[in-house]
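Newbie here. two chains, one complex. Structure please?
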Amino acid sequence: MENVYLTIVLAPLVGAIVAGFFGGRIGRVGAHSVTIAGVGLSTLLSLWVLGRFIWADEPVFDGAVYTWLVSDGMRFEVGFLVDKLTAMMMATVTFVSLMVHIYTIGYMADDAHNWPEGALTGRNSYQRFFSYISLFTFSMLMLVMANNFMQLFFGWEAVGLVSYLLIGFWSTRDSATFAGLKAFLVNRVGDFGFLLGIAAVAMYFGTLDYAEVFAAAPGLAGTEVALFGGVSLMTLVCVLLFIGAMGKSAQVPFHVWLPDSMEGPTPISALIHAATMVTAGIFMVARMSPLYELSEVALSFVLIVGATTAFFMGLVGLVQNDIKRVVAYSTLSQLGYMVTALGASAYAAGVFHLMTHAFFKALLFLAAGSVIIAVHHNQDIRQMGGIRKYMPITWLTALIGSLALIGFPGFSGFFSKDAIIAAVNQTELFGGGYAALLLTLGVLVTALYSFRMYFLVFHGKPRMDDHTREHLHETPKVVTIPLVMLAIPSVFIGWFAIEPMLINDWFASGDWSPIMVAPEHDTLAHLREHWHGQGAFVMHALGTPTLMLALGGLVFAALVWWAIAARKPDIDAKLLALGGPLTRLLQNKYGFDDFNQRFLAGGARLLGQTFWNRGDQTLIDDGMVNGSARSVGRMAGVLRLLQTGYLYHYAIAMIVGLVGLMTIFVTL
Amino acid sequence: MYQFPLLTLLIWLPIVGGIAVLASGDRSASTSKWTALGFAVLTFVSSLWLWFGFDPGTAEMQFAERVAWIPTFDVYYALGVDGISMPLIILTAFITIFVVIAGWEVISYKPSQYMAAFLIMEGVMIGVFSALDAVLFYVFWEAMLIPMFIIIGVWGGPNRVYATIKFFIYTFFGSVFMLVALIYLYFQAGSFSILDFHALELGMTAQTLIFIAFLLAFAVKVPMFPVHTWLPDAHVEAPTGGSVILAAIMLKIGGYGFLRFSMPIAPDASAALAWLIIAMSLIAVVYIGFVALAQRDMKKLIAYSSIAHMGFVTLGFFIVFAIVQNSTAGAGAVMGVEGGLVQMISHGFISGALFLCVGVLYDRVHSREIADYGGVVNTMPWFGAFFVYFAMANSGLPGTSGFVGEFMVILATFRANFWWALLAATTLILAAAYTLWMIKRVVFGPVANDKVAALKDLDRRETFNLSALAAVVLALGLWPAPLLEVMHTSVEHLVTQVTTCKLPAEEVGACVLSRPEPLAAVAQP
């Protein structure tokens, strides 16, 4: 199996290398063929591996590929751990990535227009883009398939690198390169904590191998670290690692990079938001469940951060007018749901939502991209409307995606989100009540922003200019086929996957269980005990406040942005004005960006400038270095007085000296 | 048993080559260039024999040579390498090739003397790394200044005179104290053999004074805060090749000095003063990181970045003493030193490559100011790719060599003290911030001006240089194990040495390091 796993990882890398270095020679068709072939191969093999785990009882693979280095008795290895959790992630990542690859053929077809005349970067941009997204897939696979923290960090950072390249892909736009840099730096702040977490693991466990660390964890549960007057080792490790996850999975306050990442071409938005990158943090925490289970403080922290992100970032989505930004804030909010699930020890539910979300969020992004192509890259939803008639496939798939997102009964998002809320309601950790309340209210918010966008884009009167409207038509097959392919799991995957993933403890294989939950934290137990099949689950949900809120939001959105908007087109603007200061607060995104820009970025620059001027230039160079040179000069100036070069001065000095000495000798 | 004097060959081959190039003069510039390249390549190929003939299983000096030089004062021409110096010699031979190639067309003023200076420099630097006799070491150490003085002073920028004098006086100032220490050690040990110095029992006062004397010499070379300000000036004025040698190799000599002299000769003083070095290193990482952020000149920025990265080297070395004094740390001392060494090698490649990148731009536009650029990638896509790649390596991206050393040093530092590790880890943010912000302003964005619009992408010579360095950076990042394997035994030996108390019997109470137990005491039940 090792060769299969190696092939899965390396095939996208080979594609990326060929398309990246030889893009000019093999041309556009060559580049997309080779990368799609690579990712396609990975996808097929990943699905096959997943199938083996489902039906053939495939054993868990945990082995090293090679030894990276050995130092001080510690082995750092590159190796794979493939169990059911990994297999599920691999399948999700490669499948979504493959869809994005295919879609990109259509989306990037006329990318030359995005580059200024004569820029050599624009010449092979199509090939380069394919190279990057394949590299992205490779990085993410390295991350999810790692069997140790070192390789996890490698994948973690590699994902950051490629996101930097992709967000700043249109490198002649300052806003794009700014967003790329911002994403990288914000992620680096998270990685800073992450790396310290790894260092803590290395110190106290003496190894970075997952299996060994997890085996040793219960024995170290009582260890105290002499920091802040004594803190539990597990809390320290888990919180530090989670800071990394907050960067990658864009949790408050490290969420600021994600909306800006919309500067990149739409396919990578889909890739980043659905399958790669942002899911890394969720996956990591789930993978580390044997550690998190040992620290209730860390779990509470995770819970509160997640719930805060879920609700408050969703609110910001309500006031966005850029089609991609609405979806971006919805990603933030949904990531918050997943993180909250992790905090409530419902790791399986978090990962389940990760998977369903990967499909419907990729779908929503690609659908948004499809609309963007059709309206000639104007992303303002206030200038869309009525697109339903012109783009039936995009419309229908976007509707499916939106229904899945708000958790409409029967759709995939319904199962995963309801399971999360059910689990969070059960948690007894500090912050559990807060989280449960915010998540439930968040359902309403989700329905509102999703269907505000949906109705503004697809229904009502067309508000774009005449030229654009005349050219409106459905996008080509390379764009719509991925939409359809993603719409299918968006509808059905929840129905089929909930029972094995949440109820029947499918993740455990043999005596290896990637997701460990302590009995007192088992918040999914309630769901499991009252499980009577999917149908009953749907029926039961019908009476709950959660569903009321979702449907209420949907109906309200339909009323306002469809029914009323048909007669009063300015209702949207009026509603926003009604919000007053609240609207402004949301439009300013709670001021995070301004604060960071002014105090963190500006402060760092100011500090650097001060250190340089005051410290290096004034104090050290002028004071110490040139100062000592000057004092040498001054001393020399004094001494120079003795060396006049006049013979009579010397003669006088000799006589005075002689007389002086003689006097001394005589008197002695 | 007869042994081929490989180290002598490696030292004198480039020096002889340099003299030959010098003698050939500027009558035929191409002859002298090709001769220089020939000698550089030949030296590098010969140096590979060190790698393949090296026995990683022993900490003994290998390829040792010993001939009486000045018998009256017990001075020997004694050479030898262990796992610490051997990779540095290969690094020196490797980098010199690219320096020669980088100066190929750019240097039009007295090219033969330029090439000769670098070849002689190479021989002298290899001499520093392989000398086992203190006088021989000192001679090579000081001799190094001459070619570099000439390189900056003749082929440097407009403010070169200030820079050379600053460079010379700074480094010379440091080394004078080292000479005093070496002479003192000679009187104590009765020989100039460095290995004899290692075995010498020394009181705390003597150790402290010796440590400070060495510190003055090595701290300037590294350079450590606050004696670092010569480096940005020297870099800015130096020609590209000079900057590359300066950053890639000369700085490493300071780090090497700590390992070869300060720590094993004065372990107890090192332990007592480790806090000072650790503090200076952490200031280098954090303070210099911020200073780098404020630079407007690309070369200055990379120079400051070098200082910050060298902070990891000294941190890794001296964290050893904090680790052995922290009972909960467990292992980690060896990892610190090895991390520092890997960082030295890696920084050699990365900083060398970054200076070559700036050189590529400077040769075309004749400006190092960040503000004079913008959107370079639009006219130089291949160059842009290399520059971004090396910038990422400089930010310590895993998969490049820049990650390995920093990772190891942070892991080791964490064992000593959480807060130190926290400060060290800020490099993750700072290095990325100053490097990538420069990249954003220089490489990305719209084409800034006509000069940028007229840029031509890399020629074959430049492509060769940057690709070769890129390949090494990648290879070391993906598979550093072989490098660690050759240094491992030597480093373990060194760590045992430096963590063993050397104080004489009457001062034994002051030992914080472990004392070697007399055999009899161990045997008793």
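Moderator note: Residues 518-525 of chain B have pLDDT under 50 and may be disordered. The two ends of chain B are 45 Å apart (CA to CA). Thread marked as resolved.
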